[in-house]
Amino acid sequence: MTHEERREIVLAPLIVWAGLFVLLGLTWGYAYIPGASAKVIVSLTIALAKGALIVAFFMQLRRADGLTRLAALAGIVWASFLFLFTFADFLTR
Amino acid sequence: MAEDLVLHEPFEEAARQRIAVPFGVWSFLATECLFFGGILLFYAYARWHGGEAFTQGAKEAAVWYGTINTAVLMTSSLTMAIAERATKGGFRVVARWMLGGTLMLGLSFLVIKGFEYRKDVHEHLIPGPGFKFGQGPAAQFWAFYWTATVTHAIHVTIGLGIIARLLWIERRGDLLLHATSAQGGALYWHLVDIVWVVLYPLLYLVGRP
């Protein structure tokens, strides 16, 4: 394994993994701060950040072709409609 | 990069298979997004509707089991990512060890989950007769807990089956020719990790003081 290959195969995923653990520590710690504001929003934002790291780097979506990105985007778009229309109903009753 | 690839029906050339596999798996993952989206929608509604009584139920969730399992699953995503890249790069031994590591971490996740379930059952946290909190929003939280975690555990089990198959192909000696299979399996395993990453704050952190 050359230096370049080692960086690509082992080191790059290891850095992402370290980032995920930092975020896990953050979200866990913030949940225990008494009286901290917007706990749900903070914890969900961190969860989204973790998800984005996994999607972009582990699942390599940032290097994927347009067709694959479109398929990935479709899941998010339709799931958003599911929430949008449901709460458009519930919140306006 | 290993150039040879075992072709699957209906592909006649490797280039097409290399494009079609991630596209096909991501299309499937989009449907998974909607599948778990429906389950999460129930949570969003029940929490909005149930308010404080809903989070009262969440206080009983075992945060240590949840946190350790998050760490275990995130690490299994790391080993899977390395395994997939090693397969594509032609490093068979690295791929074998990393797939083995992913399998062990996935099994560890299920074992830890099993201990957590035992604790939950022992503390009467199953909605229905004898449930700790009676009917109401707390029961809805625990209905979500069981539905979401069991569904997720089934996904983990399917993922372990896929990894076991990849290890079997490796044992047969031609894993490097199945780089697209490793890629598809890895994408699925990462999605299972993402689902848990989203469930973790919803199940284990909302009830903290």
How many domains of chain A? The number is: 2
Helical segment count of chain B: 6
Shape of chain B: elongated
Q: Mind summarizing the main beta sheet of chain A?
A: none
Helix content of chain A: over 70%
User: Over the alpha carbons, how many angstroms does the gyration radius of chain A reach?
Assistant: 18 Å
Please give the oligomerization state of what you see.
heterodimer
How large, in whole angstroms, is the Cα Rg of chain B? 20 Å
Distance between the termini of chain B: 52 Å
Which structural class matches the secondary elements of chain A? Answer: mainly alpha
CATH superfamily of chain B: Cytochrome c oxidase, subunit III, four-helix bundle
What count of domains describes the coordinates of chain B? Answer: 1
Task: Give a structural overview.
The complex is a heterodimer of chains A (93) and B (209). Chain A is mainly alpha-helical and 93 residues long. Chain A folds into 2 domains: 59 residues; 29 residues. Chain A is built from 3 helices and no strands. The radius of gyration of chain A is 18 Å and the shape is flat. Chain B has 209 residues and is mainly alpha-helical. The mean pLDDT of chain B is 95. Chain B starts with 13 loop residues before the first helix and ends with a helix. In chain B, helix 1 packs antiparallel against helix 5. Chain B is elongated. At the A-B interface, helix 1, helix 2 and helix 3 of A face helix 1, helix 3 and helix 6 of B.
